[in-house]
């Protein structure tokens, strides 16, 4: 499942950039750095989220093991008045997952915030495109389609 998605996104990147350069090479060249502002954070944070997810699964498994032991031997826990001890052990086991959850939430917030670069890119492309149409004599249609191609290449 990963390989077809990767090939689909890579081919969309390449062909969108090719079409963008064919239609308006000046606009595509000016907005090329923004493509890397899209791709870089998404790849880095995606790998970070995957690692955090795996660590969180392990932390939840540890807490689940403590709860499973306590429930399976509830008579022993009750007879030795070990309820508070079991609660403390369970809370300590979930402490790690809580810290990892906070990191995961922060990372997701950064990813969503970095998508604000799409608006910055649209503003830049609109400004450069309007300059190319008014000053350099390019046609509006190819400039607009080139802008869409460059932005879609980054997404």
TrEMBL record:
Record's keyword terms, sorted: Glycoprotein, Membrane, Repeat, Transmembrane, Transmembrane helix, Transport
Domain of life of the native organism: Eukaryota
GO cellular component assignments: membrane
Limits of the ABC transmembrane type-1 domain: 1-155
Transmembrane regions: 7-28, 34-52, 109-133
Recorded family membership: Belongs to the ABC transporter superfamily. ABCB family. Multidrug resistance exporter (TC 3.A.1.201) subfamily.
Protein name: ABC-type xenobiotic transporter
Native source organism of the sequence: Helianthus annuus
Organismal lineage: Eukaryota, Viridiplantae, Streptophyta, Embryophyta, Tracheophyta
